[in-house]
Every structure is written in structure tokens, then in C-alpha cells.
Amino acid sequence: xxxxxxxxxxxKKIPMGRTLTYKQVAILAGNPKSYRAVGNILHxxxxxxxxxxxVIRSDGKTGxxxxxxxxxxxxxxxxxxxxxx
Length: 85
Hints:
- By secondary structure, this protein is mainly α.
- It has a single domain (3-83), classed as Orthogonal Bundle (Arc Repressor Mutant, subunit A), CATH 1.10.10.10.
- 48% of the residues lie in helices and 5% in strands.
- The chain is built from four helices and two strands, in the order H-E-H-H-E-H.
- The protein has helices at residues 3-12, 22-28, 35-43, 69-83, and strands at 20-21, 55-56.
- It is globular.
């Protein structure tokens, strides 16, 4: 399985209302230093079954999103509210 496939598989498993950092995803995918690659991979995602908006920066900021940072922040707030987190 390629690193890209591993990243998508890990991100698909992030529950609503939860987040992982780019670094956590890289570690789970088996390549801890590839957190920037995780961001680049997720930036190419247009598959709605891969909730890439749930991956944030280690400093707690939302980070990038290929559909815009405002939408990412809105999605995260909405999911947190709906999940009771």
C-alpha cells in the first residue's frame, strides 16, 4: 500500500468531531517526518469520503484546505457542536 493510500485510509477513520494533526497522520502512516507530504496529499483530495478537514496543524490552527480555510473552520465547528465535543 502506498503512503498516499495509507494517509487516505487513516483520515477516513477520523470520527466526526475529532481531529488528528498532520504529524499524527504521518506517524500512523509509518513515516513520522512526512507530515508536509500528508498536507500535500490531502490538498489533492476531492473524495467526500475522506474527511481531510479533520486534519489540523500541531499548533492547533486549522491549516490548509482545498475548499478554503473558512469552510474548513466552519465544518470543524459544526461537527464539534453536533458530536457534543
